[in-house]
Model the fold of this input.
Amino acid sequence: MKIVYCIQSLTAAGGMERVLINKANYLADILGEEVSIITTDQGGASPFYPVSRRIKCFDLGINYCDNTGNKLGVRLRKKHLHRKRLKKLLTELRADIVISLFKKEADFLYKIKDGSKKILEFHFSRFYRLQHTSGWRILWKKILLKKDKYLASKYDKFVVLTEEDRGLWGKAGNICVIHNACDFQTEKYADWDVKRVIAVGRLDYQKGYDRLIAIWKQIHAAFPAWTLEIFGEGEEREELIRQVRESGLESVVTIHEPVSDIREEYCKSSVYVMTSRFEGMPMVLIEAMACGLPVVAYACQCGPREMIQNGENGFLIEEGNEKEFVQKLSLLMQDRELRAAIGKRAADRTSRFSKENIMRQWTELFCSLKADN
Done:
């Protein structure tokens, strides 16, 4: 089977990029499928995560990121060129399945008649556009949300990550749920003895690290020997470093560059925290739990509610309830046996997110669509 993925680039150390590459590598190396990845902004750079040699990578050279100021005329010209080049390449590849990760090509991919079935894959929550928005922009974002729903309806299949998010999209007949997969098969658990808390993800508004640093200022007063290690890159790095400094936390809070082997960092920690304002289905949360880390997370849309059974394999905190977050995190930090018990249950309950289970669902979807041709 010929399968094509479309994404902006593979240079970022993001969850979406890692999920795509893990799936593509599995399809190519384990199942022997013919897999291609088409980018628009790779710019000759190497992917952050390793891509199988069996996978063919193509870059269309559109470079949307060069449009400083987001000028409308430039954007429209690039979109036209994108459609032209993508149509030409897909006609040559003659794929069975083409998948968009809801990037720029989502606007027109379903219109390209190359003989393939088209899938739209969504890695956020339905109303993510309304986050961090005020004034007249709210009206514009609501228009974009209607456009999102229209585009989703035009594809042969629309895949979301959680049942929670499926409910937010309404009764679309082409929608289905396939969770992110966890490829961690670790024989090594987290170190529940170490006084180290970890958080992983992009340094931006979505991930809410400003909220986490505010929480840690309270935590530090009661647990001065504990450290918080944040791994990520993004636009808020300097602002977060400033917040750490102004909070007097330089000695206990460190913001690290991303690492390709994050599993090692999980296993050197004893608690995982997540203060995101919204998610799709956070890979980092699944992976941390698979490594035996007890987690404390805000119950944002979407994902945490489907992974955390409150008090069993982690603590699910009402969105924005900082006081409760501090209480539950403190409870774990002061009790090593509780960390171990919850961490073990977290690891035991991640089997449903195994790569084999999730990839079986994807291959069944691909085969059902191909059979319809």
